[in-house]
Amino acid sequence: MRRPTLEAVAARAGVSRATVSRVVNGQLTVTPQIREAVLRAVDELGYVPNSAARSLVTQRTGSIALVVSEPPTRVFSEDPMFATVIRSASLELEAADRQVVLMLAGSAKSHARIERYIAGGHVDGVMLISMHGADPLPAAIARMGVPVVSYGRPAVPVPLPYVDNDNVGGAEKAARHLLDRGRRRVATIAGPQDMIAGQDRLTGYRNALRDADRRSIVAVGDFTRESGAVAMRHLLEDDPALDAVFVANDLMAVGALQTLRQAGRRVPDDVAVVGFDDIEAARYTEPPLTTMRHPVVEQAAAMVRLLLGLFEGGPADPVILPTELVVRESG
């Protein structure tokens, strides 16, 4: 069975080939009545646009790169953040008739491959996730002139549009919640300090402790459950009298709860624990975890909308989403 052509659609709709082309390429210079007639003919004939030919006309591929600066072992791990961002961004792009190209930038070799792919014109724009320290990708992509946005404030001094949540304010609120509950020695398990989220949440904790004239007690993890367990052991060794801990993400908090249980510390009677993110597992820890809700789904969707807006000359202003304290039984 022959594939329906643009000419066949034009004949069925009673319009010119050029008019059909404008409709299928999303141009707005067609009246609603003609657009409806063309789309009805497309549906009746089962016409599927030739993506390669359409790209030549529109200079767009319909594809968006989602670049995650982590190795596969980290992306496809127990951390639900990556899956949630990828799923949410994909759904938002699908609603805009675009597709996502997932690219993992966990090594220098993969960085070079991704730069070549983007420079080759295979995608219309780029979304960056989980950037670390002096990552060269943001600056390299910005130099190409490809529209790019970041999930989270960039760690490098490159003027990229970004969508973030209020990490500093959320961490301050979490630490103050513990202080308001009468806790005297409030420690923190900070996130990696080559990431803005890790830096900002540590800043928020320190702001709250400084305002309360309390000493900061800090251990650093890498946003994994194992690092949270190890950091909690170090905190107990360094300050056995601590009675609360703010943990910079829920996955590390799960590890911290395990260490506290093994050490015979009751939560929250002996040590109160507050996390950050509000992942699904936070509701099922023992006891259920008090945490700061980080709107991951909304942040991913806002990132897509920001990028799509750039295609149309929209604003590149940062978007900051609020966090919310979710009080459960751990603190």
TrEMBL record:
<keyword id="KW-0238">DNA-binding</keyword>
<dbReference type="Pfam" id="PF13377">
    <property type="entry name" value="Peripla_BP_3"/>
</dbReference>
<dbReference type="InterPro" id="IPR010982">
    <property type="entry name" value="Lambda_DNA-bd_dom_sf"/>
</dbReference>
<feature type="domain" description="HTH lacI-type">
    <location>
        <begin position="4"/>
        <end position="58"/>
    </location>
</feature>
<dbReference type="InterPro" id="IPR000843">
    <property type="entry name" value="HTH_LacI"/>
</dbReference>
<dbReference type="GO" id="GO:0003700">
    <property type="term" value="F:DNA-binding transcription factor activity"/>
</dbReference>
<keyword id="KW-0804">Transcription</keyword>
<dbReference type="Pfam" id="PF00356">
    <property type="entry name" value="LacI"/>
</dbReference>
<dbReference type="GO" id="GO:0000976">
    <property type="term" value="F:transcription cis-regulatory region binding"/>
</dbReference>
<dbReference type="InterPro" id="IPR028082">
    <property type="entry name" value="Peripla_BP_I"/>
</dbReference>
<protein>
    <submittedName>
        <fullName>LacI family transcriptional regulator</fullName>
    </submittedName>
</protein>
<keyword id="KW-0805">Transcription regulation</keyword>
<dbReference type="InterPro" id="IPR046335">
    <property type="entry name" value="LacI/GalR-like_sensor"/>
</dbReference>
